[in-house]
Amino acid sequence: MRRTVFNEDHEAFRDTIRAFIEAEVAPVYDDWENAGHPPREFYSKLGELGVFGIQVPEEYGGAGETSFKYQAVISEECARAAVSFGGYGVHVNLVLPYLLKYGSEEQKKRWLPPFVSGEMMTAIAMTEPGTGSDLAGIQTTAKRDGDHYVLNGAKTFITGGVLADRMLVVARTSPATPDNRRAGLSILAVDTRSEGYAVGRKLEKIGLRSSDTAELSFTDVRVPVEDLLGEEGRGFEYLTHNLAEERLGIATSSYASAAAAVEFARRYVRERTVFGKSVSSFQNTKFVLAECATEVEAARSLVDRCIEALDAGELTPADAAVCKLFCTEVQARVVDKCLQLHGGYGYILEYPIARLYADARVTRIYGGTSEVLKTIIAKDIQV
Ligand SMILES: Cc1cc2nc3c(=O)[nH]c(=O)nc-3n(C[C@H](O)[C@H](O)[C@H](O)COP(=O)(O)OP(=O)(O)OC[C@H]3O[C@@H](n4cnc5c(N)ncnc54)[C@H](O)[C@@H]3O)c2cc1C
Predict the structure, then answer these.
(1) Ligand 1 geometric centre to CA of 286 (Å)
(2) I need a labelling partner for 196 at 20 to 30 A (CA). Which of 91, 293, 304, 336 fits?
């Protein structure tokens, strides 16, 4: 089906990203997976390419673009090559909206230029060993002491946690109130070189092996009050404001991964011969790929509609929950079926379908599990 969401500028940008991946990422991607993250210099290259600054206003060194579409193009191109850019997604998709929306003028001047160049990589630490879906249960504390907060606690599963230079840490600045468990949370943008800030284990994951996911701990970390993002005590509300964009980002890369899986399988079944016939000649193969292509088309239409809605400022949290739930479930089914068509080779990591399969599992977990999304959707339809 002809897509109407991208124009010539987006397609020219797509060509640039495709060439960049072919030259700078695909040849060394195995090394990144073995190391658990891209080399630090790679982020400077992304900075030079301009991808960190697309949505940053021009006065802070960015391109001043307000549309999400360029990010969508990057997701599609990464999926097409079965690679990811390490902590890129968190830096741009998760952290940037907070800096733009809640950063003061002074903070934007201080943080956005190095954010754009890749000199300052960022990440966000919400999840704790004892609480993930239920963020109101956060126990990390930040107690005011003169012109500093004193931060204590631990976080886990933090993407970009090893290489980040500044971490948005969600912490409790005052106790929850009896009638509101969500009260009293704040967001601090913590310099990761601060004394008492420690990066613990880099977690070994079954997929997404090129992104560093780490445990963090904070022991009496002194954070200047000027590094508080927005207003004290409004952290939970801020977290909910950005959920729609965060979830659309995951939905986009999920549908794109399903689309890439269909293409890898299509090429494979045409080349592979069994019982003297091409695998593509079996009716089962044709039917499976037709079903997969249909699911991808439906997911793509939903993503395209949601991208337009986000750009128009109309995407609701429930819309984004629907989109992420649908696209990640489509991804799971489609990637699994496309792996099956590869036979044993589908299980071997040198085939891109195997990497897509391993990487896909987490999309139904992070950014809101499928079950949590269903509770949001059910509430929206008043069940
Ligand atoms: C690779 C990876 C990267 C991540 N990156 C980050 C990051 O950068 N920053 C960050 O802060 N976090 C990150 N996370 C954490 C992620 O967001 C959480 O894992 C996720 O929110 C789920 O929380 P949990 O793991 O504590 O699971 P739990 O909340 O303990 O959930 C356990 C089970 O209970 C179910 N459940 C929970 N609530 C309900 C409910 N109301 N109704 C029905 N079932 C329910 C869940 O769906 C799940 O099946 C990452 C996780 C992974 C695996």
Answers:
(1) 37
(2) 91
At 132 the pLDDT is 92
| Atom number of ligand 1 nearest to Cα 94 | 8
Give residues (CB < 6 A) around ligand 1: 90, 123-127, 132-133, 157-159, 205, 208, 213, 362, 365-366, 369, 371-372, 375
369 and 295 in a single domain? The answer is: yes
Mean of pLDDT values over 198-216: 95
Last residue of a domain, one of 94, 117, 140: 117
Q: Which residues contact 171 (CB under 8 A, 6 or more apart)?
A: 138, 140, 141, 142, 149, 151, 153, 185, 186, 187, 188, 235
Residue 251 lies in a domain: yes
Domains in the chain: how many in total? 3
* pTM for this model (two decimals): 0.96
pLDDT at position 1: 87
Catalytic residue, candidates 33, 232, 246, 329 = 246
- Which of 117, 152, 175 is a domain's end point? 117
> Is 169 within the bounds of a domain?
yes
Instruction: Give the rounded distance of the alpha carbon of 226 from its chain centre.
Output: 27
Owning domain of residue 143: 122-233
- Could you give the C-alpha distances from 147 to 16, 170, 223, 230, in angstroms and in order? 46, 19, 9, 16
Looking at the CA of residue 126, tell me the nearest atom of ligand 1.
11
Question: Whose C-alpha lies nearest to ligand 1, atom 14?
Answer: 157
